[in-house]
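Below is the record:
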Amino acid sequence: MVWSHFTVAFDEGLAAARGWAAEHGHLLAPTEATWENYPIGTWLKNQRAAARRAEDPLAKGQQAGSGAGGLSRERRRALEEIDPAWCPAWPVAWQRCFHLARMHRQTGGSLPEREASCWCRARTSGAGCRCSDWSGMRCAACSSGCSARY
Protein backbone atom coordinates (compact mmCIF):
# COMPACT_ATOMS: atom_id res chain seq x y z
CA MET A 1 0.00 0.00 0.00
CA VAL A 2 1.31 3.41 -0.98
CA TRP A 3 0.65 6.11 1.59
CA SER A 4 0.52 9.74 0.55
CA HIS A 5 0.55 12.57 3.06
CA PHE A 6 -1.11 14.81 0.46
CA THR A 7 -3.98 12.37 -0.01
CA VAL A 8 -4.50 11.98 3.73
CA ALA A 9 -4.41 15.77 4.22
CA PHE A 10 -6.94 16.31 1.42
CA ASP A 11 -9.23 13.61 2.81
CA GLU A 12 -9.12 15.21 6.28
CA GLY A 13 -9.95 18.60 4.76
CA LEU A 14 -12.76 17.11 2.70
CA ALA A 15 -14.27 15.50 5.80
CA ALA A 16 -14.15 18.86 7.59
CA ALA A 17 -15.70 20.52 4.50
CA ARG A 18 -18.59 18.06 4.61
CA GLY A 19 -19.15 18.84 8.28
CA TRP A 20 -19.01 22.60 7.73
CA ALA A 21 -21.42 22.39 4.78
CA ALA A 22 -23.84 20.17 6.70
CA GLU A 23 -24.16 22.85 9.36
CA HIS A 24 -23.87 26.02 7.26
CA GLY A 25 -25.22 24.95 3.87
CA HIS A 26 -22.18 26.08 1.86
CA LEU A 27 -18.41 25.97 1.52
CA LEU A 28 -17.84 29.73 1.77
CA ALA A 29 -16.27 29.62 5.21
CA PRO A 30 -14.37 32.75 6.31
CA THR A 31 -10.60 32.21 6.36
CA GLU A 32 -10.49 32.08 10.17
CA ALA A 33 -13.29 29.48 10.42
CA THR A 34 -12.66 26.08 12.00
CA TRP A 35 -14.62 22.85 12.03
CA GLU A 36 -13.93 20.63 15.03
CA ASN A 37 -10.54 22.38 15.44
CA TYR A 38 -9.68 21.88 11.75
CA PRO A 39 -8.81 25.18 9.96
CA ILE A 40 -11.51 24.74 7.29
CA GLY A 41 -11.48 28.38 6.19
CA THR A 42 -7.77 28.33 5.40
CA TRP A 43 -8.03 24.88 3.79
CA LEU A 44 -10.86 26.02 1.49
CA LYS A 45 -8.97 29.21 0.59
CA ASN A 46 -5.98 27.07 -0.39
CA GLN A 47 -8.17 24.68 -2.41
CA ARG A 48 -9.69 27.63 -4.32
CA ALA A 49 -6.20 28.95 -5.08
CA ALA A 50 -5.14 25.50 -6.30
CA ALA A 51 -8.28 25.21 -8.44
CA ARG A 52 -7.53 28.57 -10.07
CA ARG A 53 -3.90 27.54 -10.73
CA ALA A 54 -5.13 24.36 -12.38
CA GLU A 55 -7.41 26.34 -14.68
CA ASP A 56 -4.79 28.94 -15.63
CA PRO A 57 -3.41 27.83 -19.02
CA LEU A 58 -0.52 30.27 -18.67
CA ALA A 59 0.67 28.79 -15.38
CA LYS A 60 4.00 27.11 -16.06
CA GLY A 61 3.04 26.60 -19.71
CA GLN A 62 0.66 23.79 -18.79
CA GLN A 63 -2.61 22.89 -20.42
CA ALA A 64 -5.74 24.01 -18.56
CA GLY A 65 -6.60 21.57 -15.80
CA SER A 66 -3.03 20.45 -15.21
CA GLY A 67 -1.29 23.51 -13.76
CA ALA A 68 1.60 23.00 -11.38
CA GLY A 69 0.30 22.90 -7.81
CA GLY A 70 -3.24 22.91 -9.11
CA LEU A 71 -6.23 21.01 -7.84
CA SER A 72 -6.96 17.80 -9.71
CA ARG A 73 -10.29 17.41 -11.49
CA GLU A 74 -11.17 14.54 -9.14
CA ARG A 75 -10.64 16.69 -6.04
CA ARG A 76 -12.50 19.62 -7.59
CA ARG A 77 -15.46 17.32 -8.34
CA ALA A 78 -15.44 16.09 -4.73
CA LEU A 79 -15.79 19.68 -3.52
CA GLU A 80 -18.42 20.51 -6.16
CA GLU A 81 -20.52 17.57 -4.94
CA ILE A 82 -20.69 19.28 -1.55
CA ASP A 83 -21.28 22.82 -2.89
CA PRO A 84 -21.31 23.61 -6.62
CA ALA A 85 -20.53 27.27 -5.80
CA TRP A 86 -17.51 26.57 -3.58
CA CYS A 87 -15.07 28.31 -5.97
CA PRO A 88 -16.81 31.26 -7.62
CA ALA A 89 -15.15 33.35 -10.34
CA TRP A 90 -16.15 36.50 -8.39
CA PRO A 91 -15.11 37.36 -4.81
CA VAL A 92 -16.01 34.78 -2.17
CA ALA A 93 -17.30 37.54 0.13
CA TRP A 94 -19.88 38.47 -2.51
CA GLN A 95 -20.92 34.83 -2.95
CA ARG A 96 -21.22 34.48 0.84
CA CYS A 97 -23.52 37.52 0.99
CA PHE A 98 -25.57 36.20 -1.90
CA HIS A 99 -25.98 32.87 -0.08
CA LEU A 100 -27.10 34.67 3.09
CA ALA A 101 -29.63 36.77 1.17
CA ARG A 102 -30.99 33.72 -0.66
CA MET A 103 -31.38 31.78 2.57
CA HIS A 104 -32.97 34.80 4.26
CA ARG A 105 -35.53 35.10 1.43
CA GLN A 106 -36.22 31.33 1.39
CA THR A 107 -37.17 31.51 5.06
CA GLY A 108 -39.61 34.34 4.44
CA GLY A 109 -37.37 37.30 5.20
CA SER A 110 -37.39 40.44 3.14
CA LEU A 111 -34.53 42.57 1.94
CA PRO A 112 -34.55 46.31 2.61
CA GLU A 113 -35.60 48.64 -0.17
CA ARG A 114 -33.55 51.66 0.81
CA GLU A 115 -29.84 51.89 0.14
CA ALA A 116 -27.39 51.11 2.94
CA SER A 117 -30.02 49.28 4.97
CA CYS A 118 -28.52 46.39 6.84
CA TRP A 119 -30.27 43.07 7.13
CA CYS A 120 -27.64 40.55 8.25
CA ARG A 121 -24.42 40.12 10.10
CA ALA A 122 -22.41 36.92 10.21
CA ARG A 123 -21.74 35.63 13.70
CA THR A 124 -18.62 33.76 12.67
CA SER A 125 -16.75 36.62 11.03
CA GLY A 126 -18.45 39.88 11.93
CA ALA A 127 -18.82 40.69 8.23
CA GLY A 128 -22.22 41.37 6.84
CA CYS A 129 -24.06 42.30 3.69
CA ARG A 130 -25.98 45.19 2.34
CA CYS A 131 -28.14 44.28 -0.61
CA SER A 132 -27.46 47.71 -2.14
CA ASP A 133 -23.80 46.70 -2.52
CA TRP A 134 -24.55 43.81 -4.85
CA SER A 135 -24.92 45.89 -7.96
CA GLY A 136 -21.19 46.59 -7.76
CA MET A 137 -20.36 42.92 -7.11
CA ARG A 138 -19.10 43.65 -3.62
CA CYS A 139 -20.24 43.10 -0.08
CA ALA A 140 -19.81 45.64 2.71
CA ALA A 141 -19.41 45.22 6.45
CA CYS A 142 -22.40 45.72 8.66
CA SER A 143 -22.40 47.45 12.02
CA SER A 144 -25.86 46.59 13.32
CA GLY A 145 -26.65 43.86 15.79
CA CYS A 146 -28.55 41.52 13.47
CA SER A 147 -27.76 37.82 13.61
CA ALA A 148 -27.95 35.91 10.31
CA ARG A 149 -25.64 32.87 10.21
CA TYR A 150 -22.95 31.97 7.69
Q: What stands out?
A: Residues 5-24 form the longest helix (20 residues). The first strand starts at residue 120 and ends at 121. Strands lie at 120-121, 128-129. Residues 5-82 form one domain.
